[in-house]
Write a structure and sequence with these properties.
This protein is of the alpha/beta class. It contains 7 helices and 6 strands, in the order βααβαβαβααββα. The longest helix has 24 residues.
């Protein structure tokens, strides 16, 4: 039985779900938050220590400004309303990505959320915000050069946003799309990948459990026989 320390998820399909059910992409994003809360509960039940959620990519800036503003307002409201619950639940929040392009208000909320939850150890949730894996790797190489270190796999890992976090054991992508979309490209070299047809708001706790149980029964060789 394979142990699960780290699950990464590309939460794809919110906008399409919203158009299909409510004729609004934004309502799909709101519905997706309900799924996030369900998956967090299941992750804790399975005693998984790390959960990385692809929340906003470096490419998502190409979306309409109205939708981007809605997404950030939704995130702000969620963190303001739920931060005390995260603290009491033993959840640590860590932001991975470049926060420089965010508003002063959002940065303040993100920083406060990280600070308030910094001592929690039950589950670490990595929120990938303005995250792009290629940028992350290039940034790591620049920091290695700046600090006059030798370019090596170990040093690259030491300068990634995910330093001190084990690589994902499995990656789930919902939304019936079979691609990685510039997500954790370095970290998922030997990660098991599960592509799920359901849109993110339709992804249930039972779907999640089935994938986790399927993963536990896989034979993982890591290049061996």
């Amino acid at each position: 039985m394979n142990p699960v320390k780290h699950v990464a998820i590309i939460m794809d399909g919110n906008g399409r779900w919203g158009l299909k059910h409510k004729k609004s992409r934004n309502l799909g994003h709101r519905a997706g938050l309900n799924t996030v809360e369900k998956i967090i509960k299941e992750t804790i039940k399975y005693k998984i220590k790390y959960l990385t959620l692809y929340t906003f990519s470096t490419e998502n800036w190409k979306r309409p400004k109205k939708e981007i503003n809605f997404l950030f307002n939704l995130l702000e409201t969620f963190l303001i309303n739920k931060i005390e619950k995260l603290v009491s639940s033993g959840i640590r929040l860590k932001i991975i990505g470049n926060k420089k392009l965010f508003s002063f208000k959002l940065n303040k909320i993100l920083n406060e959320s990280e600070k308030k939850t910094s001592k929690n150890k039950k589950l670490q949730i990595n929120l990938a915000l303005n995250y792009g894996s290629k940028n992350e790797i290039v940034n790591a190489a620049k920091l290695i050069r700046k600090n006059k270190k030798i370019l090596s796999e170990k040093n690259i890992e030491n300068y990634l946003y995910t330093k001190n976090v084990p690589n994902p054991d499995l990656l789930i992508r919902t939304g019936n799309t079979n691609r990685l979309s510039n997500f954790l490209l370095w970290q998922i070299a030997y990660t098991e990948i599960f592509f799920e047809k359901k849109l993110w708001p339709d992804f249930s706790s039972n779907d999640y459990r089935q994938i986790l149980d399927k993963f536990k029964k896989l034979k993982r060789n890591f290049g061996n026989i």
